[in-house]
Specification:
Layout: H1 9-43, E1 50-53, E2 58-65, E3 68-74, E4 77-82, E5 86-91, H2 94-100
Length: about 100
């Protein structure tokens, strides 16, 4: 009986490479897109914007200082917060005026 030929090493590597490609397109790439979008949101934050912090506090930006924000959480309560501590920019000063007018649809 002749010995069976073993498959080429590259043939064995194809399934492993396919798994890496799948992980990249379904896990890594969407996470990178989400991180870029979050960074874009943080960079566009302006004075007067309402924010939600990663700690769950709601506040309004009253000043910008490089990588930090001065945020008012209540009357006479202002804190300096790193931009990375912002989970979400909720609205700007112009947005409440739009919400005040009911739509006719």
């Amino acid at each position: 009986m002749p010995p069976q030929a073993q498959p080429n090493l590259w043939v064995n590597m194809i399934p492993i490479a396919a798994v890496f490609v799948i992980f990249y397109f379904f896990l890594i790439r969407p996470q990178q897109k989400q991180m870029k979008e979050h960074q874009r949101m943080l960079d566009s934050a302006q004075k007067g914007d309402r924010i939600l912090t990663t700690g769950g506090l709601y506040g309004t930006i009253v000043g910008l200082k490089g990588t930090d924000l001065e945020v008012r959480f209540a009357e006479n309560v202002k804190l300096t917060l790193a931009r990375s501590g912002v989970a979400k920019v909720l609205s700007s000063e112009a947005a409440p005026a739009e919400k005040a007018q009911p739509s006719l649809s």
